[in-house]
Backbone:
């Protein structure tokens, strides 16, 4: 492991220490302990519930095997392997969105112990953050408190959704690192395929534990800011807490050990619960759920069938000569199962990889976002994309398509989601084929030179950049079908030789 | 003798079912016979919380018509039964005899009920119990106390007191109970019927209002051992709604013939010691003599950890039930204090008013033993002793096929006698709790009487040996004649 130089992180004489707990919603079809759909997005309140989610008398939890499988995959993604023995415990507290009066979680024998996440910062340095543990637990329902109303509303659709809570060691020392860790964890889970990782829908939520201390060997009293759902809010909340705590200590005040919330509008944290009010959760092993034991064979099967993980994709894309920003942009894009287009790029020649990367980043991704906004999302299979890209690329190679027309044609084809029988024929029909016929172009150039004597004079007197204006006029006249490189050559030749 | 309906004894379930199948007896008549018996006897004995007559008669008519039309019907087609009111059923409220669940209509049924209904059995009523099955007399019912069929001034035992009394009063051929620490066997002993607690996990707990998850078992109250076997054959086996269920014996539980000769039987020394009523002791010894005379090898066996079993039980069980009762919070179903001005007040008042004294006592004990700082001293230590107990039973069963002893330290006690003495009440469970803590099957079979009051004889077998236990119990029943 790399040695951390704490001095680098010192602020006003204080060493900040941060540990992060992250709740990852696992994407099993059904809930953790009942056979009810786990996909609550768009569902009406309290429609995805069973006697188990509702906490009716006599309802018993039955563990969803898929959750154990997804957690085992997550273990490998975090650089460790699942525990052969783990068990479930009850954590008691009363709240209307917790129907049984206890949450089922894993206290002392979780499915994952250990693991690590290596984050790279913008300055090119890397740091490894160790994972203490990750445990499976059920989510609670959702409470809403309409303002001004004398009631609250509870939606139990989310009650019983499986979560994997990943707990880091307190080895993070700055807000930037905290953000980088959160983002890296998000990418790891995304490529492990264990979660939909949709931050907007709360698929990953971060709790940050922050403390500051003048003594690098001793931790200060920590605050825990809960339920952060963006990387930016992780960064800002940590930043805010470090400053708030240093200010308090500088004024000779104490830090309260408490739970805080992040108020996004005001960009600040506020105290919610102090330790004195903390519940005694009265944990004990859940007698309704037998402990989970998994065999070596089970673990090996999981290992053998692992998807391509984040680190491997980075290597593959680097080998294709893509730069850091391109690679991260591709990895972070959240438009579909990225492995589809990542393998297209990874499996192409270096030169094609560069072209495809540009198309995906600059054409497909913006288009997809636009289509989603207008509620007409694109549905492109990996093979359709591959065929479209290959067809267009061939036309460009043949000099038939300008880069702008290539863009228009890609958009047209992605939207229609069809592979044309003949790309060239379609391009002609759409009027995208470049005019490279010298004879035709020459007469066009002659017309433009005649119409723009002043510009021509300027070029002759050395204002070379005015050629661009003339090229533009020819392009306009040809309705974009002229090959601009050829047009430029012709114009230059004609003006220099006084041909017209 | 306990009073009963004018028709007296029900035939064996196997006989009854044959009569129905052959069309000699109509299901509607059986249901009406049960409902009439309830109407006749319930005002005096207070056995039943509610009847499910509409649903029961509708189902009976359907079965009769199926039989008339030659359709296949289930093994227990048309046979009435009563379910303890902590077992979720359609057709009537399920209250667990508690105010907090009063008015609760379950949208689903317990797996045991579903399995029995699939074989055509018909639930006619819900029986009284100590609220949430907390007790040994039904005096902790939030509604009323059931009277012992042999002496109306005495308790029927508990917590399945209503179910035991219903069978003793011949209201139905069988009743379902639950046994968390003796709740089926103790009332069986007090009411002179068979009370059988299967191996933990052999019968699904899905749809049973949970008391203590690690010891709760659905149990049976019947007039004969054969009937218990017939029902176990239907209700046992794995359930995808309860992950603690285990697979059943591949052979039918009704296939039980056993020669007592040369069977090795251990008489549990600790059960015959201090605290046991002299007359009950005498009766128990007579029963042991009978087994000896029939050729069984009888030896006294000591299980030194046994005196700690009750203490262990009253740590682990309250811990689990305090957790299981958390869901009764007045927010979604059941009693809710409507005048509450805040969430905290709603919790506090709904639970304070909705739970009876015994539930509150046990919630407090359970909450205490699980509190941080006390967990190790109570809950963890109790689990350690529980493991010791399991080991002792395991080694005893290496030497003996069965262990025997009395079911309860006395005959049925007077109503009110122990009501202000929770400890004396808890001591009633002293001979039954071990089977629950160790998960082994145990049965109480009528074993004589003292001053006209029934005395039960308890037989225990190793885990999963339910067939052997029922066979042994049947041999013993036949021995008694």
Residues:
């Amino acid at each position: 492991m790399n040695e951390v130089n704490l001095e680098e992180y010192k602020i006003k004489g204080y060493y900040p220490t941060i540990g992060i707990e992250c709740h990852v919603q696992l994407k099993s079809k059904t809930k953790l302990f009942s056979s009810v759909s786990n996909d609550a997005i768009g569902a009406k309140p309290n429609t995805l519930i069973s006697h188990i989610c509702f906490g009716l008398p006599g309802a018993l939890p039955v563990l969803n095997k898929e959750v154990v499988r997804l957690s085992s995959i997550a273990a490998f993604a975090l650089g460790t392997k699942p525990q052969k023995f783990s068990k479930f415990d009850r954590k008691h507290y009363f709240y209307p969105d917790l129907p049984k009066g206890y949450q089922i979680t894993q206290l002392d024998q979780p499915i994952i112990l250990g693991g690590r996440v290596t984050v790279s910062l913008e300055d090119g340095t890397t740091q490894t953050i160790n994972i203490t543990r990750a445990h499976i637990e059920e989510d609670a329902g959702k409470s809403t408190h309409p303002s001004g109303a004398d009631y609250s509303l509870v939606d139990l659709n989310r009650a019983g959704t499986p979560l994997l809570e990943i707990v880091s060691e307190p080895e993070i020392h700055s807000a930037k690192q905290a953000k980088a860790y959160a983002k890296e964890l998000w990418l790891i889970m995304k490529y492990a395929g264990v979660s939909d990782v949709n931050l907007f829908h709360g698929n990953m939520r971060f709790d940050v534990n922050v403390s500051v201390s003048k003594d690098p060997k001793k931790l200060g009293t920590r605050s825990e800011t809960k339920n952060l759902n963006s990387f930016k809010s992780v960064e800002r909340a940590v930043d805010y807490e470090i400053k708030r705590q240093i200010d308090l200590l500088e004024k000779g005040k104490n830090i309260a050990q408490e739970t805080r919330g992040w108020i996004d509008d005001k960009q600040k944290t506020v105290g919610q619960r102090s330790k004195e009010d903390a519940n005694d959760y009265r944990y004990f092993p859940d007698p309704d759920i037998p402990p989970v034991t998994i065999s070596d064979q089970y673990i090996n099967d999981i290992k053998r069938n692992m998807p391509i993980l984040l680190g491997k994709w980075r290597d593959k894309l680097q080998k294709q000569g893509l730069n850091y920003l391109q690679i991260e942009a591709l990895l972070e894009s959240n438009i579909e199962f990225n492995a589809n287009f990542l393998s297209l790029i990874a499996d192409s020649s270096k030169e094609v990889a560069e072209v495809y990367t540009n198309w995906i980043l600059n054409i497909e991704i913006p288009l997809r976002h636009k289509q989603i906004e207008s509620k007409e999302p694109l549905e492109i299979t990996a093979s359709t994309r591959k065929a479209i890209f290959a067809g267009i690329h061939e036309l460009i190679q043949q000099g038939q398509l300008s880069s702008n027309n290539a863009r228009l044609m890609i958009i047209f084809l992605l939207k229609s989601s069809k592979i044309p029988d003949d790309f060239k024929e379609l391009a002609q029909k759409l009027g995208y084929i470049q005019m490279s016929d010298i004879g035709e172009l020459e007469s066009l150039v002659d017309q433009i030179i005649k119409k723009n004597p002043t510009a021509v004079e300027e070029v002759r007197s050395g204002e070379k950049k005015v050629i661009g204006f003339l090229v533009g006029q020819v392009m306009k006249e040809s309705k974009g079908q002229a090959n601009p490189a050829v047009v430029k050559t012709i114009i230059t030749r004609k003006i220099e030789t006084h041909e017209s | 003798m306990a009073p009963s309906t004018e028709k007296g004894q029900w035939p064996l379930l196997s006989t009854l079912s044959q009569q129905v199948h052959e069309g000699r007896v109509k299901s509607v008549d059986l249901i009406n016979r049960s409902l009439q018996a309830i109407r006749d006897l319930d005002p005096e004995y207070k056995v039943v919380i509610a009847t499910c007559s509409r649903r029961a008669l509708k189902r009976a008519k359907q079965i009769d018509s199926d039989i008339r039309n030659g359709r296949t019907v289930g093994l227990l087609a048309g046979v009435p039964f009563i379910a303890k009111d902590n077992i979720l059923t359609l057709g009537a409220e399920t209250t667990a005899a508690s105010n907090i669940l009063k008015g609760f209509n379950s949208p689903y049924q317990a797996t045991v009920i579903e399995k029995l209904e699939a074989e055509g059995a018909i639930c006619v009523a819900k029986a009284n119990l100590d609220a949430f099955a907390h007790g040994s007399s039904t005096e902790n019912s939030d509604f009323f106390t059931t009277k012992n069929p042999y002496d109306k001034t005495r308790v029927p035992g508990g917590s399945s007191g209503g179910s035991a009394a219903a069978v003793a009063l011949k209201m139905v051929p069988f009743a379902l109970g639950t046994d968390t620490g003796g709740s089926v066997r103790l009332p069986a002993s007090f009411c002179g019927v068979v009370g059988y607690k299967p191996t933990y996990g052999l019968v699904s707990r899905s749809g049973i209002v949970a008391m203590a998850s690690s010891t709760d078992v659905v149990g049976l109250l019947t007039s004969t051992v054969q009937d218990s076997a017939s029902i176990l054959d239907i209700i046992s086996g794995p359930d995808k709604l309860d992950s603690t269920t285990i697979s059943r014996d591949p052979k039918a539980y009704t296939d039980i013939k056993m020669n007592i000769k040369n069977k090795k039987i251990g008489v549990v020394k600790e059960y015959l010691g201090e605290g046991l009523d002299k007359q009950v002791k005498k009766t128990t010894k007579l029963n042991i003599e009978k087994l000896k005379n029939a050729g069984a090898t009888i030896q006294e066996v000591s299980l030194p950890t046994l005196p700690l079993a009750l203490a262990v039980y009253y740590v682990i069980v309250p811990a689990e039930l305090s957790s299981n009762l958390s869901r009764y919070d007045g927010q979604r179903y059941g009693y809710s204090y409507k005048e509450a001005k805040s969430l905290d007040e709603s919790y506090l008042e709904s639970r304070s008013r909705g739970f009876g004294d015994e539930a509150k006592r046990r919630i407090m004990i359970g909450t205490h033993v699980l509190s941080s700082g006390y967990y190790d001293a109570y809950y963890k230590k109790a689990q350690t002793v529980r493991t010791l107990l399991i080991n002792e039973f395991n080694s005893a069963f290496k030497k003996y096929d069965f262990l025997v002893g009395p079911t309860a330290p006395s005959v049925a006690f007077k109503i009110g006698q122990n009501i202000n003495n929770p400890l004396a009440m808890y001591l009633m469970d002293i001979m039954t709790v071990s089977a629950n803590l160790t998960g082994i099957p145990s049965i109480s079979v009528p074993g004589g009487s003292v001053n006209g009051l029934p005395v039960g004889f308890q037989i225990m077998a190793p885990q999963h040996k339910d067939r052997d236990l029922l066979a042994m119990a049947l041999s013993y029943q036949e021995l008694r004649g």
Q: What stands out?
A: The interface with chain B takes residues 51, 54-63, 90, 92, 94, 96, 99-102, 152, 154, 280, 282-284, 286-290 of chain A (CB under 8 Å). The radius of gyration of chain A is 30 Å. Chain A has three domains: 6-296, 306-429, 438-496. The mean pLDDT of chain A is 91.
